[in-house]
Amino acid sequence: MSATQRFCTRESLAQGDPLAGSAAHAERNLLLSWPRPKWQRSLRRASDMGDEVSTRLEAIADAGRRVNLIHRRDQPSARHCLYLMPENRRFEVTRDELSAFLAALERNEPLAHWEASPPDAALLLCCTHGKKDKCCAKFGYATYKALDAAVAERALPFEVWESTHLGGCRLAASAVVFPALRKYGRIGDEDVLPLLESEMADRPYLPCYRGDSRLSPVQQCAQVAALEWLASRSIHADVSVAQPSNEQESSQGWIAIDWRSASDTGRLAVRCEPRMIQRYDTCADLAAGPPAASQVWVATQVQAIEMAALHS
């Protein structure tokens, strides 16, 4: 089979590459609407983007705020919608004023001149960045259309946007929900409505959930395993890592997770073990040679424990 007929998404699934632990994402984000046909391979560059705007976006990214381009057909090409997350602020900026807006953002100056009403619904971004990886075109765009159609047909409280690269091309279709900053992967048609319903209940949709982006990969692995353990017992709970990630914790493999539901609380101990797998991270790697070795985390045990029992 030729490389052009292969997809890193299918290769990743065949290798048992887990979703949990793959949710790395910056907490501070700038989302900038820009017509998808103009996107380039970089997640923050477009072919008709002026040099001054490009330079300012690079400076904003270098200062620690992730920049993604987003697209909806109903957004005018010469008028840009911008979001700051986690601040949950929205702005409307003309192409002529975009450089001035970005300069003010860089300098931490007031942005009230451009500010619009904040989003009244969660933002759901689905990666359709085909110039970055063909999986995001093939699987991502189909999922975007399905999500957008479901939201429109049922008048659900989401703004659905196409997005440039969200990380983990091999996990397409990939999506992220703001401001909750929950990341998802391998979203299929059968997942669309259940994912939306879970997010409306402010709960992660576990079959596609990659973890909390604020946690380390091993902590994400433990978090997802704890949520699955609780869900299997019909317990819907908020969970939190009860201790920081450090070398001792990782070497022992046990992570404590506190949980709280509407009627109860508890603590779980989750054992996570490192595994080495051979995988292709992108479709471009398929033609470059053999797959590369990568470490992933796998949860092997979940136990309910007393608060003082973890280190006994």
Q: How would you describe this structure to a colleague?
A:
- The protein is α+β, with helices and mostly antiparallel strands.
- It has a 10-stranded mixed β-sheet. Strands 11-12-13-14 form a 4-stranded antiparallel β-sheet.
- Helix 2 packs parallel to helix 3.
- The termini are far apart.
| Quaternary state of the chains | single chain
Helix content: 25-40%
- Could you tell me the mean pLDDT? 92
Shape type: globular
How much of the sequence lies in strands comes to 25-35%
Helix and strand topology:
Blueprint: H1 8-14, E1 29-33, H2 51-62, E2 66-71, E3 79-85, E4 89-94, H3 98-106, E5 115-116, E6 122-127, H4 134-154, E7 158-163, E8 175-178, E9 182-184, H5 192-200, E10 209-212, H6 217-231, E11 238-241, H7 247-252, E12 254-260, E13 265-279, E14 292-305
Parallel strand pairs: 1-2, 6-7
Antiparallel strand pairs: 1-3, 2-7, 3-4, 4-5, 6-8, 8-9, 9-10, 11-12, 12-13, 13-14
Compact summary:
It contains seven helices and 14 strands. The protein has 312 residues and is an alpha+beta fold.
